Amino acid sequence: METITLTKLDPNFKFELAEKPGAANIRKCYACGTCTAGCPVFHVEHTYNPRKLIHKILLGMREQVLSSKVIWLCLRCYTCTANCPHDVDFSNIMMSLREMAIEEGYAPPEILEQIDFLTTAANDLRKDCINLFLHEGDITKEQIRENFEKMLQQIEKPGF
Ligand code: SF4
Ligand code: SF4
Hints:
Putative CoB--CoM heterodisulfide reductase, subunit C, metal ion binding, binds iron/sulfur cluster, Fumarate Reductase Iron-sulfur Protein, Chain B, domain 2, 4Fe-4S, iron-sulfur
């Protein structure tokens, strides 16, 4: 269980975030958990939980949220945004959280480019694996291994 240090809470965090594009409805969240239930990242990594992240934002846990490594796991797929019964646009809120994390020195600016690269490379690999499975096109297991190796070689540790 995570410890909450009352003196470290920032009551302005949610108001500041609500001023960012698409984030105005964050305070309407009533913790129903629909976002988490449909989140593809939560299904493979339970430490990533949009409902809990929003709860921490509303509590004012600024440092814990912005310094958290899990905010870089979101795919920004908009599933949570589409499913939320209270129109909380968490996909765009996540972009604002990432920008704030960089602005406040919790992550280096180049991480955004790195995440975009990994997302595109992972989608390419997925497409190739499905084509292999379906016997579509000329892709071979050897080519997929080579592409995967190339992707690994291009991962630079962001240094935080
Ligand atoms: S689906 Fe919407 S209201 Fe429900 S927990 Fe997620 S953000 Fe909050
Ligand atoms: S945008 Fe992020 S939090 Fe929302 S469903 Fe997709 S991966 Fe999960």
